Amino acid sequence: MTSTTTSSTPESAAPAAADRRRWFALAIVMTAAFMDLVDVTIVNIAIPSIQQDTGASFSSIQWITAGYALAFAAGLITGGRLGDIHGRKKLFLIGIAGFTLASALCGFAANPEMLVASRILQGAMAAMMVPQVLSIVHATFPAHERGKVFGLFGAVVGLGAVSGPLLGALLTEWNLFGLEWRPIFLINLPVGIAGLILGTKFITESKAPKALKLDLVGVVLVTLGLLMLLYPLTRGRELGWPLWGYLSMAGSVLVFGGLIAYERMKAARDGSPLIELSLFKVKSFAAGIAVQATFGVGLGIFFLVWTLYMQLGLGWSALRAGLTGVPFSIAVSVAAGLSVQKLVPRFGRKVLQSGALTMAAGLLIYIWEAGRYGLDIAPWQMALPLVVMGLGMGLIVAPLTDAVLSEVPKEHSGSASGLINTVQQMGNALGLGLVSVVFFGSIGDDVAPSRLGQAFVEGFQHSLWYVAGVLGVIFLVMFALPGRAAGVVRAEAGRPEPHDLPRERQPVA
What we know:
Radius of gyration: 22 Å
Shape: globular
Distance between the termini: 21 Å
Largest sheet: none
Number of helices: 17
Low-confidence stretches: 1-18, 486-509
Helix content: over 70%
Strand content: under 5%
């Protein structure tokens, strides 16, 4: 059975199953994860209000969203490794404190430049906080309880997906105290302060049992490689896809190649690399990472195009657009809970593959409805495709996380969760970059104002075909996942996890 590691006790400390405090700790870290998920989505719905109130240019508006994603993606692996070294509780508390401070700075931003800088800080602090969530869960809960925990995590993902746009729409339209859009950030203050106080009391400290050092060269290389890839993708369309952007993206491949070579040398020299490359020898981890990255691409395309379609194409208000997404998120939450607790233990990998096909079916229904009803489509008519898509997404998100981490040694859980989040953010950034091609590219720059709405409808349909294609790729990649999660098989057989065995008895991947 997995045991909780403290800063002053060995891995053989009191079992996590006997510690009721772990459920309080779970509620706290889940709340922090929820706060981050909401913050990612809450801004999009308020962009028209921000632009009108601050006079922000299109470039500034782009960086209010992209700056967060860039800082988040660039810092995730480092944040996970810092948690392994200095303690996951300590880094979680630093992250949530910084995230709360950055939220205050966003809420009181005097101009677009200050808002962009504050969002970048917010993303960097989220990179300290978010990797610790899965690490704390992985280090605190034994294998037989993790299915339930990751089911809850999937429900939180679904709740965050619906709460962000809906909460952003309500706070913007209510115009509390005449603050316009600012409450979408200020609402994080009481939540963050409560999480900081309760986290100090209830979260048990854990870290890697072997003393590690921060790999500064690895930090520089991974950050440089990500920026060289994501910056041109984010600004490419705005700048007319200049040559230097393509050269930068090509150069990022060389940087990542240098990173891999250096990390191998670092692991052989002192055993403290930033990225634990041995993780990729674990088949479930390597395959799950590939699925996660591809899935991120599809989600990055869909959610941005969907928002543009409803608010700019159909001319809907922020509140109407936010309410339209409620059936989708409810379906995600329901399916996520069922998939981990009921379906995956019985059907294994087939559940995730069914999720990919179900999401694709929902997209095809949506494409048909968008063409059939055009600009006259109503929110209730969107409910069917959104529910089908939500059910499919719920069948993927929760069990995928468990599958990726199921065979990862606990001392590398911080690095692993950092990689999981990073590849998904990279996938999202790639999807956002591809929106310029699959959506705006199909609309063109010389559309007559009278035809703009219909052009957005056609661009939306065009984009969904690409997302459906991405899900087809995901279905095929999922064949590389194990037929049944290793944790499930061991739990049924009464066998311990590999990272609970003495090192000399751990199976070779």
